[in-house]
Amino acid sequence: MVNPFKKYILFITTLLILCVFITGIFLGRILTKLEIEKVSEFIKQNELNTDSYLIEQELLSFEKNNCEFSKEKISDLSNELASIGRQLDTPDAKEKLGPENYHFLKIKFHLMEIRTYALFRKLIDTCNIAPNIILYYYGINDPKSAQQGPILDQIVDLFDAKVFAIEFNYSKELQFLESYYNVTETPTTIVNYKIINQGLADFNKIKTQLS
C-alpha cells in the first residue's frame, strides 16, 4: 500500500516542477518582448532624432556658419546607430528578437545608416570639410569580411573615421545603393564616397585613401 504522505509529496513536487516550467515559459516571452521593445525604441528614437535634424537643416539650409553645429548633430546620429548596430550584432539577437522582428528591425537600421551616410555627403559638399566616411559591405560567414572588420576598427580608432556597415544582399529595399556602387562581392569598402575596394583591403591601403 502506497504511503499517503509519499503520494502527497509526489503531488507537491510535480506541481512545483510544473509551476517552474510554466513560469520559465512566461518569463522567456516577457524577456523576448522586452528585447524587441528595447531595440525598437532605440530605432524609433533615432528616427525621431534624424527627422528633427532634417527639419533643422531645412530651416538653416546648411549655412556656412552652422557647419560646426551640423557636424556635431550628424556625428551624434552616427554614434546612436553604432549603439543599435551592436545590439543587432550580438550572437543571440535573432533568437531573442525572433526571425521576423529581427529581419524588419535590421532593414530599418540599414536604411537609417544609408540616410545618415547621405547626410554626411551633404555636409561635406556644403561645408567644405573632410571627415573620413567608409561604407562597408560585409557577408555573414565570409572569412574575408571577418578579417576586414578588425581592420576597419583600427581605422576608426586611429583616424576618427565613420564606418557604415551593411550586410550585402540582405534585402531588396537596400539594393539601390549596392547597384549604385556596383557591389558584387564581400567585403567591399567605399572610402569617402568615391574610392571602391572590391575584396579585402588591408590597413595601409585604406590609410592612404583617407583624407
Shape: globular
Query: How much helicity do the residues have?
Result: 55-70%
- Radius of gyration, in angstroms, nearest whole number: 24 Å
Outline the low-pLDDT stretches: 5-13, 15-34
Provide the β-strand percentage band: 5-15%
Average pLDDT, all residues: 76
Order of helices and strands: HHHHEHEHEEH
Number of strands: 4
Distance between termini?
A: 88 Å
Give the domain tally. Answer: 2
Largest sheet: 4 strands, mixed
How are strands sequenced across the largest beta sheet? 2-1-3-4
Q: Number of DSSP helices? A: 7
Helix/strand-derived category reads alpha+beta
In short:
The protein is of the alpha+beta class and 211 residues long.
Topology:
Elements: H1 4-60, H2 67-88, H3 93-97, H4 99-127, E1 133-138, H5 143-159, E2 162-167, H6 175-181, E3 188-191, E4 195-198, H7 203-209
Parallel strand pairs: 1-2
Antiparallel strand pairs: 1-3, 3-4
What does this structure look like?
A hairpin with a 3-residue loop joins β3 and β4. The radius of gyration is 24 Å and the shape is globular. It has 211 residues and is of the alpha+beta class.
Key features of this structure:
211 residues, Glutaredoxin, globular, alpha+beta, 4-stranded mixed beta sheet, 4 strands, 2 domains
